[in-house]
């Protein structure tokens, strides 16, 4: 019975993280759709701001952690309204979102605003779920929260992303789902908004009614909002936390540029988005299997993380070579702006994608396990949110900056048949190569110090006088 209760708790966490991944997956499909209409990397950089709430949620995390309705539940106070608002926003935006996207000049500002709000609500839900996981699970299972996070987010992300790309692409629909070809997709983004909006509303109502949040001593303490910010200030004053924050903000400089632009460069040089998206289903098993596999490494997680780092830099070099290959060999043979891949080319691209997915998921899971290991439960939601905020910020600011820089250094024009970027100002390879050099320098000089953080005693990560509450 106890084992069943444990599994039900973990299943609930996976479900909540899955819901969180759904808007993210839909947002991930937008750059591919924009790339079909324009190769303006400035628009891509603007849209990348939609994910910034996950990197800024620390600003309101203490409010989520310290303000709640005791009878309803500390975490449900924020989780339920956030998820209801996500569902309602998707239903309200379902009709205008298609017109914004399909206009001759996509209304990138309005589209960005809609997804920015969705990400803000998902970030708020994430704060609540992270904090709930620390008290919902037993002491021996707390580190499993990272596996629930990785598994659930991946499941929601891939479900929405892959389904939408497949059912919205006319070539895929005509080839696999229709007997009579048509120029219209089976479903639009608005259709997905309606479907998943209803999913959010129904699921949230069920959780609100049937899942009771057990009271804890944290409720009795009634940490005020001001008290949460005070504890956050105390957290920021811890030397190990400061060092960890510095490392997290810089560690992904070496590879995030190439990882965030590689698919767009392939599409720019003629690879159909359907062929790029087709790689996703094959990467999904990797995303599911890696977190449990990483759960077996109960010891030196940061030590293993740093061993994977040079492999990821090496992958970045291969991605750079892949982009150059696409420009030299694929772009010249493109007809009507499309250059279908040969079987060998597709297999190579698949291997690169699977390797990237495995490395990314493994390193993320190892980080999450380390966060759960060192987090101070007295401010569980705020502590986990702070570390996740730094992780997200460390990935998003280099991606946005490099996307903007590439846009500034590249002249692009588009017509009905193809997108063309001028080589006179195309400095993509210089920017990408520069980030790889930065990554190598980070590994040589910073990685050893990063690895030593794992050897520090747990007490050095906790605020003085705090205790574990159950």
From TrEMBL:
Residues 1-27 form the signal peptide. It is a multi-pass membrane protein. This is Acetyl-coenzyme A transporter 1. InterPro entries: AcetylCoA_trans_1-like, AmpG_permease/AT-1, MFS_trans_sf. One of its GO terms (biological process) is acetyl-CoA transmembrane transport. Its main location: membrane. Keywords: Membrane, Signal, Transmembrane, Transmembrane helix. The chain crosses the membrane at residues 51-69, 78-97, 109-134, 146-167, 187-210, 309-326, 346-366, 428-450. Pfam families: Acatn. One of its GO terms (molecular function) is acetyl-CoA transmembrane transporter activity. It is found in: Membrane. One of its GO terms (cellular component) is membrane. SUPFAM superfamilies: MFS general substrate transporter. The keyword Nucleus does not apply. The keyword Transmembrane applies.
């Amino acid at each position: 019975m106890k084992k069943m209760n444990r599994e039900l708790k973990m299943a609930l966490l996976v479900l909540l993280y899955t819901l969180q991944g759904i808007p993210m997956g839909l947002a991930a499909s937008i750059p591919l759709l924009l790339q079909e209409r324009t190769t303006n990397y400035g628009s891509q950089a603007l849209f990348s701001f939609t994910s910034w709430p996950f990197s800024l949620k620390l600003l309101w995390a203490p409010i989520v952690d310290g303000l709640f309705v005791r009878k309803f539940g500390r975490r449900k106070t924020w989780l339920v309204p956030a998820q209801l608002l996500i569902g309602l926003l998707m239903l309200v935006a379902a009709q205008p979102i298609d017109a914004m996207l399909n206009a001759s000049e996509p209304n990138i500002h309005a589209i960005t605003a809609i997804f920015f709000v969705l990400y803000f609500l998902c970030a708020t839900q994430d704060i609540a779920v992270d904090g709930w996981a620390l008290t919902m699970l037993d002491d021996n299972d707390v580190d499993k929260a990272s596996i629930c996070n990785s598994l659930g987010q991946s499941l929601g992300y891939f479900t929405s992303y892959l389904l939408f790309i497949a059912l919205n692409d006319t070539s895929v629909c005509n080839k696999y789902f229709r007997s009579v070809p048509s120029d219209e997709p089976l479903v639009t983004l608005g259709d997905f908004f309606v479907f998943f909006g209803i999913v959010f509303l129904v699921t949230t109502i069920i959780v609100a009614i049937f899942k009771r949040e057990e009271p804890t001593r944290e409720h009795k303490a009634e940490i005020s909002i001001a008290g949460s910010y005070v504890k956050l200030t105390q957290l920021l004053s811890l030397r190990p936390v400061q060092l960890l924050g510095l490392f997290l903000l810089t560690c992904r400089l070496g590879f995030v540029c190439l990882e965030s632009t590689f698919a767009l460069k392939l599409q720019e040089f003629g690879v159909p988005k359907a062929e790029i998206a087709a790689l996703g289903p094959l990467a999904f098993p990797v995303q599911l299997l890696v977190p449990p596999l990483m759960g077996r490494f109960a010891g030196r997680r940061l030590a293993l993380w740093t061993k994977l780092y040079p492999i990821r830099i090496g992958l970045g070099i291969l991605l750079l070579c892949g982009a150059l290959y696409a420009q030299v060999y694929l772009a010249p043979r493109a007809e009507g702006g499309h250059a279908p891949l040969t079987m060998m080319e597709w297999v190579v691209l698949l291997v690169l994608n699977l390797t990237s997915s495995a490395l990314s998921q493994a390193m993320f899971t190892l980080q999450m396990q380390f966060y759960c290991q060192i987090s101070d439960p007295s401010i569980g939601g705020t502590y986990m949110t702070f570390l996740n905020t730094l992780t997200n910020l460390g990935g998003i600011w280099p991606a946005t900056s490099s996307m903007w820089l590439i846009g500034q250094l590249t002249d692009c024009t588009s017509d009905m048949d193809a997108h063309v970027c001028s080589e006179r100002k195309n400095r993509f390879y210089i920017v990408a190569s520069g980030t790889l050099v930065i990554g190598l320098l980070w590994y040589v000089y910073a990685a050893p110090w990063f690895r030593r953080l794992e050897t520090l005693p747990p007490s050095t990560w906790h605020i003085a006088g705090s205790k574990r509450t159950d």
